[in-house]
Amino acid sequence: MRTLIAILGLAILVISCTSPDEPVAGNRYAWVVGDTDSVHYGAIYHTSDGGVTFTRQGVGQESLKDVNVLDVKAIDANTVWVVCSRNRIVKTTDGGKVWKAVQTPANDLDCELYCISTVGANTLVVSGSHGTVYFSNDAGLNWTKSQVPGMEEAQFQGVVALTDTRAYIVGNVPVSDTERSGVIRQTTDGGATWQRVELPNKFDSLHTWISAATYGSSIIVYGTTNYYSLSTDNGMTWRNDSTRIFGGGGGADINHLIMLSANTWMAAMDMGHLLRTDDAGKSWTDVRPGLGAAFMLGISAFDNSYAIACGETSNFPQLGHIVRTTDGGKSWVRSFTKPGSFRKVTTTF
């Protein structure tokens, strides 16, 4: 699980690691986001060379003041969305020179917006705490809040939109002071109604869920202690499974999973694990990028070979790390380190 540690007054340490054999990485754009730090602005770091070098964006802009940036999604090299704590959605249309907050449909400053998913440039779905789900079908000009019955206390940590009307939300609800139950819901009408997704052997409620991913007719919901469930028939049937990767005295959390194809996935996990499967989870390659017990929280890929991952260390002083691979995850090099935390990464050309 993530440990939040405030880091004040530390200088930024930049580590740029390249080798003569690395491919030219120009015109590969990425944004890596994280928590507010000693300068009191949410962290947004940008690269245009595939993660070889990074520059910070948004410092001094009111839209990012005193917020943690929790997720990021690039539509293209110019248009990028981020969602934050304090119920804030922020957008840039010029590659990150200017970041502007947009009006959300609810005035809830205690709400944390955990995840954003998009279909094309027009359909956006955001999920968060307090059972929050927001929809926009006009590129973020207007937003509506979707009501999910009985889920007012839910933490919707993840969302994945499949079409302009169909989406999955996943997360958990409290069942006691110390226990939480998993929640998976699906809408096929743009959030007007929601249906429970029931996994075999009550897997949906036995485990708490972090997010979901999709490719074609395949859908994965994934979460804590290395568990996930896969559907290859558009959600009609599901197969429960686990990465069988351990860490921290139990199963390592799957913090972020991406699908490069129906069979090839990459995952960022606790205890520094960065995984890849090319046979839909039957076997996994597990590589640690030399960061010890770091929580790897985000991963995104340009193609089958070139990917960027990010996370945070579990020890004090806490450091946020960015790593990259150019060989499909066989090896990783460290690109950037700063005091604090990195949460998620998005990539585009």
The CATH architecture: 6 Propeller
Portion of residues in beta strands equals: 35-45%
Q: pLDDT under 50 segments (min length 5)?
A: 1-24
**What's the β-strand tally?**
30
Helical proportion, percent range = under 10%
- Major β-sheet profile: 4 strands, antiparallel
CATH topology: Neuraminidase
What is the 3D form? globular
Query: What's the pLDDT, averaged over the residues?
Result: 92
Number of helices: 1
| Total number of distinct structural domains | 1
Give the termini distance in whole angstroms: 32 Å
Structural class by sheet pairing and helices: mainly beta
Radius of gyration: 19 Å
What is the level 1 CATH name? Mainly Beta
CATH superfamily: TolB, C-terminal domain
Major beta sheet, strand line-up: 3-2-1-30
Q: What does this protein structure show overall?
A:
The protein is mainly beta and 349 residues long. It has a single domain, classed as TolB, C-terminal domain (Neuraminidase). It is built from 1 helix and 30 strands. It has one helix at residues 203-206; strands at 29-34, 43-47, 55-57, 69-74, 80-84, 89-92, 100-102, 113-119, 123-128, 133-136, 144-145, 155-161, 167-174, 180-187, 195-196, 209-215, 218-223, 227-231, 239-242, 246-247, 250-251, 254-259, 265-269, 274-277, 285-287, 295-301, 307-312, 319-325, 333-339, 342-348. The strands form 8 sheets. A 4-stranded antiparallel beta sheet has the order 3-2-1-30, with no helix packed on it. Strand 10 (133-136) and strand 11 form a beta hairpin.
